[in-house]
Amino acid sequence: MYQESELLPLSGLQHLLFCERQWGLIHIEQQWEENRLTAEGRLLHAKADQAAPEQRPGVRIVRAMPLRSLRLGISGRADVVEFPRDGSPPLPVEYKRGKAKADDIDRVQVCAQALCLEEMLGCIIPQAALYYGQPRRRTAVKLDSPLRQRTEMLAARMQELFRLRKTPAPVILPHCRNCSLVHLCEPDTLTKRGSAALFMKRAIRRQLTGEENLE
Fold first, then answer.
1. Residue 140 DSSP SS3
2. Which of 22, 146, 161, 169 is deepest in the core (most CB within 10 A)?
3. Strand-strand pairing, 74-84 and 91-96
């Protein structure tokens, strides 16, 4: 179990899954730059957070609900949590811009919210939902064992990296062009610099050892 002072932002799981270096720049070095994609996402979340709680037939809707998990070491808030009046498990709903993604980035975030709710309320939540701004409809998220395990592993990895206090090295990936921190990260420059340093190190070792095929 983690202490309150050791809890890390739940939102960091999404950054970590997108890119460990991006997570380090944001959560270790406290750097942030916004682009069109992040601005659209921020406005969508702000709209969801500002709305008042609602009472609808058969369901109570709570917005911007604080969450935490001492087991996973994370805290944050859910955009929306729906509490059915028939005693069914609560349903966390996360708001996202654009369309549904093929990877687990969004599903991991809403799964982490569900895991927090399970710990806080002593219940089992079988599914969650993602609301995407472009099609304006929900996508159901089944909280199965693989998704839960991946979410828990990411939370553990996040705590490990935070303890090390070292921003991971850059890796050039296809989605680098969509990252708002690409100019701070400099993946092209730093990767080439690292490759050159490795080449020189190997060359020096070959001269000292006389090895021709040193890997």
1. strand
2. 22
3. antiparallel
Tally the domains of the chain: 2
Residues 62 and 146 both lie in one domain: yes
- CA dist 79 and 63 (Å) reads 5
The pLDDT, as a whole number, for residue 53 is: 73
Q: CA-to-CA distance for 154 and 146, rounded, in angstroms? A: 12
120 and 24 belong to one structural domain = yes
- Taking the C-alpha atoms of residue 104 and residue 122, their distance in angstroms, rounded to an integer, is 25
Q: How many Å apart are CA 163 and CA 144, to the nearest integer?
A: 29
Q: Is the pLDDT of residue 183 over 90?
A: no
Phi, psi of 94 (to 5 degrees): -105, 135
- Strand residues in 70-121 grouped as ranges (E): 74-84, 91-96
Nearest alpha-carbon partner for 30 in 118, 195, 162: 162
Is the pLDDT at 40 greater than 70? The verdict is no
pLDDT value at 213 more than 50 = no
Query: Which structural domain range is residue 205 located in?
Result: 169-215
- CATH number, position 130: 3.90.320.10
Q: Residue 48 and residue 196: Cα distance in Å, rounded?
A: 48
Task: Give the single-character DSSP code of 28.
Answer: T
Q: Are 147 and 124 within one domain?
A: yes
Handedness of CA 28, 37, 101, 179 (dihedral sign): negative
Q: Is the pLDDT of residue 36 over 70?
A: no
Mean pLDDT of the chain: 82
